[in-house]
User: Fold this.
Amino acid sequence: MFTLTGGTIGGGKFESLVIAEAQAAIQKRKPLLKTYPLREGESDSFGAICGGEVTVFIEPQITGESLYLIGAGHCAHAIAKLAAECGLFVTVVDDRGDLLADLPPAVTGISEAAPADFVASRSWRNDEALVMVSRNHEIDCEALAAAVEQSEAGYVGMIGSRRKVLDVFDRLRKRGVSEEKLSRVYAPLGLDIGADSPAEIAVSCVAEILAVLRGRTAKHMQISSAAGKLS
Assistant:
């Protein structure tokens, strides 16, 4: 699992144990109250000899629908902004820190990991969307290669022309990726609204993500005149 930490609770073995417990609590989505003995002779002693004990309360931040964007270019910025305004928890992964600095305040930026490594390191949930919108198809291809192995993600999409998508799919097939796994990828991503600008692409993409995560059809809600009138 890819982890970002801040501050310290003493370092050493104790801190590493707490981090591991925190990671487990995030996955289980449950709080945890645990006491660690700081002395030898206890059944759950971890080698500390300073004496006493310490109790830690771990309360994971339970997020709702989330979007993870690989890439921080113009389209990614537009998608991140709209998705955050729609209430999604948004994270952008890119190695260009200057672009991450310009993200909206509600969006989290991560630059410490290669995109493919980030994708492979997480345990994905069915209320999370993962979208590849990086600056080149090589990055998207490697990230998608990791993503297709993560069957629990609720949505996996990749931006690009029909030519790019077919090229990336061919590369993954040669690596042994099955058609069943590729069939779960929304690529090119988005609903067909004739999107051209980054803002329009964002509307197309976010609408599709919300529909998929929520199990909706994304069909028109227009009422036919043949439906009759309210009495």
User: Anything to note?
Assistant: The first strand starts at residue 32 and ends at 37. Residues 93 and 220 are 33 Å apart (CA to CA). DSSP finds eight helices and eight strands in the chain. The chain has a mean pLDDT of 88.
